[in-house]
Description:
- InterPro entries: ACT-like_dom_sf, ACT_dom, Chor_mutase/pphenate_deHydtase, Preph_deHydtase.
- GO terms for molecular function: prephenate dehydratase activity.
- One of its GO terms (biological process) is L-phenylalanine biosynthetic process.
- It contains nine helices and 15 strands.
- Helices cover 27% and strands 28% of the residues.
- It folds into three domains: 104 residues, 3-Layer(aba) Sandwich (D-Maltodextrin-Binding Protein, domain 2), CATH 3.40.190; 77 residues, D-Maltodextrin-Binding Protein, domain 2; 122 residues, Alpha-Beta Plaits, CATH 3.30.70.
- It is of the alpha/beta class and 313 residues long.
- Strand 3 and strand 4 form a beta hairpin.
- Helix 7 runs antiparallel to helix 8.
Amino acid sequence: MPETPQPETYSYLGPAGTFTEVALSQVAAAAGKPWRSVNNVGEALDDVVSGRSAAAMIAIENSVEGGVSATQDALASIPHLRIIGEYLVPVNFVLVARRGTTLADVRVINAHPVAYAQCHVWLDANLPSHGHIPATSNVAAAASLFDSDHADAAIAPPGITAHHDLDVLAENIGDNPNAVTRFILVSRTTTTPAATGADKTSIIAELPDDRAGSLLEMLEQFATRGVNMSLLESRPIGDALGRYRFVIDLDGHIDEERVADALMGLRRFSPNVTFLGSYPRADGIRVKFDQRYGDAVFTEARDWLDRLKSGLE
């Protein structure tokens, strides 16, 4: 049996100073509560499942690199999790090193794989012969410089020197100055936040079989009900080559008739649908859709069918 949830505790990918901590700082309910630093997504979600934490903040998508596969796969495999909020954090990076190190001294760089991928242009131009050692987080990459001499420098978040005594060798080394990472707050609650008109619904679905047109049939469940998808990514299921599940973000809330009807259609079509939650959009932009798919249209059609079945029309 899972432990009793501790409403005072929030888990995040640490140590202190990560972008995930910045995202968690946006959660009003977490202010003044204990925060638990963890090493990876799996540990963060295990905190939630076991009850050590009431919720966990994890990265799910980057505007440059796309979806975070570790998060998507974990959400697909761990049951009874719900996304209850999303948060956006602008992302850029600095190159740091131990005191006295110069850029000419750098041969090997420690960096989180996602951060490393977002700095290729600068690295290729300034350190074309460097090697790379993967780190578990951006701050861990910087902290590792004190633990070993395997790396000469690290890619880290701006402000890292507030936590570690390091020299900044270069600033703004990210390939895209407008890069943003999307984070989600995940809990075990089954209560869905109320619809606001500016909402998103996240699901994971599998195709019933591997044949021409199956993906189109799945997408038609949304198109025929006027539901827009803001994210569609495939991830291997893992049981055989060519078998994929799809991570999908829908514009709208499960309490809206068009979204609910699309989910029911998807449930009839797909052998496995995971509902991850409906929650407010981080940008607060209200969802626009053709009013032919408004709630009143679905309600009238259902009432009409009821009258037909009862012989009143």
